[in-house]
Amino acid sequence: MTSGTAWAAVAGPKHEPPLRDRSSPSPARSGETSAEPGRPTLVFDLESAREVDFCAPWAAGVSVAVVYDACRHEFEIYRGEERRLAVLADRLNSAERVVTFNGERFDFRVLAGMGFPVAPQRSVDLRRLVETAVDDRFAKGNLDDLARLNLNAGKRGRGCDAPRLHQAGEWDRLTEYCMRDVVLTYRLWRHCRAGRPLRLPRGRVVTLPRERL
Questions:
Q1: Which residue, among 148, 177, 145, 159, has the nearest Cα to 48 in the 3D structure?
Q2: Which pTM value belongs to this model?
Q3: What is the spatial distance between Cα 60 and Cα 66, in angstroms, rounded to a whole number?
Q4: Domains along the chain?
Q5: How would DSSP label each residue in 126-168?
Q6: Which residues, including other chains, have CB under 8 Å from residue 158's CB and lie 6 or more apart?
Q7: Potential cystine with 97: which of 7, 41, 71, 91 (Cβ 3.0-4.6 Å)?
């Protein structure tokens, strides 16, 4: 775990991610359970250590990764050292479900390219589900767009700032940024699992199939 500074800045009450609103129950009351004991639902995001080339995302490396265990209501922080990434990959591969936003296209590819393949029992990539549901590429939106439209909350900072924070050794700020992305992803996932419509840019609205979530 990183220092208490980053936790206090992002987490709010113990084991309860921030950004709670009336439409999204808190994890402690959400009743989220695993179908298989010991195989949790994990929400995951990572930040790059270097500028990203999307033709070879693994070359960007990992500065920090954050996992939120939706059954235990706990965050886990992983720095980009090889031994920690091996633990991270094992953790993700042991999960019943891994929830991400664009994880299949970026985060998983980064880890796989670094020698840590991730193939969870079930991957729930919210970005991919939205892309499947909407044929208008301008209406799909990014994590910040969907969070602001549906949660009345958004990102703080930009992912492209992560390499600079990493190089400057600003671990608290970097971890806080990544944790916030994880929380936004978790809240959007809960929003969709409850069967609520998902508002998108350009006035589009979709309801994602619960069986895919």
A1: 159
A2: 0.82
A3: 17
A4: 4-202 (3.30.420.10)
A5: HHHHHHHH---GGGS--HHHHHHHHTS---SS-GGGHHHHHHT
A6: none
A7: 41
